[in-house]
Design goal:
250 residues; mainly alpha; hpI Integrase, Chain A; 3-stranded antiparallel sheet; two-stranded antiparallel sheet; 11 helices; disordered N terminus
């Protein structure tokens, strides 16, 4: 392990917390807590439909709040009239990506888009303001933080719930369903495997811990950067499996 890799492991990133010994503690929601949080959204109101679509999207795709709020209507992908994916044009580090939607995320997003169209809003940011005089503007990250905190209080969740906690929750669900750290790197769109290990390595199984060491030591095939074609094929397979699993839980 190089000194650079050791430094990465000791750094605090992605809003994870460190103990006095430097061990990473990731704040995340269990499936029951996530369900309770989302259950507090009142979809009788248009803001509720919008907020549920946004929160469900982040919780089931791992999108960062800036990426989710940056989505414009032109970025939505459809097949046969059904929402299937989202193009991220300006992700972290200016990277572009494509995110496949689960059935649950697609359904909640579609419900908001229908309500949005009923207001006469066309084009522009998907998650926008709806008040008269300021209709169609992109909502701010601070607002999403406030929504998360308010819903957590209502649901009786004592954790410090932020938009990024939804991203961590997505990652932990994948790990609990058997996804390896190497695969998780692709799902979370991390540039380096060391980042994935730093944030989630302490939550891995013994097998996952051994894999983490092998990855950092360069002893694993997963430490070699796959081709673009391999990354796309692997990610599509992972998403298909996750979609089937999550779809069955809705």
């Amino acid at each position: 392990m190089t000194s650079e890799e050791e430094a990465v492991i000791l750094n605090t990133i992605d809003h994870s917390v460190k103990t006095d010994k430097g061990e990473a503690i990731v704040e995340y929601l269990s499936e029951e807590e996530l369900s309770a949080l989302l259950g507090q959204v009142n979809t009788r109101y248009l803001t509720g439909k919008r907020n549920l679509g946004l929160l469900m999207l982040m919780a089931e795709t791992g999108l960062r709040v800036s990426e989710a709020l940056g989505i414009d209507e032109r970025d939505l992908e459809r097949e046969g009239g059904q929402l299937t994916g989202v193009a991220i044009r300006n992700g972290k580090g200016g990277k572009q990506a494509r995110v496949v939607l689960t059935n649950g995320a697609a359904a909640k997003l579609a419900a908001w888009l229908e309500a949005r169209a009923g207001l006469g809003i066309e084009g522009g940011p998907v998650f926008c303001t709806i008040t008269k005089g300021n209709r169609g503007s992109r909502i701010k990250r601070e607002y999403v933080w406030q929504v998360c905190k308010r819903l957590a209080d209502r649901a009786g969740i004592e954790k410090n719930v932020s938009p990024h906690v939804l991203r961590h929750s997505y990652a932990m669900r994948l790990m609990q369903k058997g996804m390896s750290l190497g695969q998780l790197k692709g799902a979370m769109r991390h540039s380096r495997i060391a980042t994935t290990i730093d944030v989630y390595g302490s939550h891995a199984t013994d097998e996952g811990q051994q894999q983490a060491v092998a990855l950092l030591n360069g002893d694993s095939d997963e430490s070699k950067e796959p081709t673009l074609e391999q990354q796309v094929a692997a990610l599509q397979e992972q998403v298909a499996k996750l979609t089937a699993a999550v779809g069955g839980e809705q």
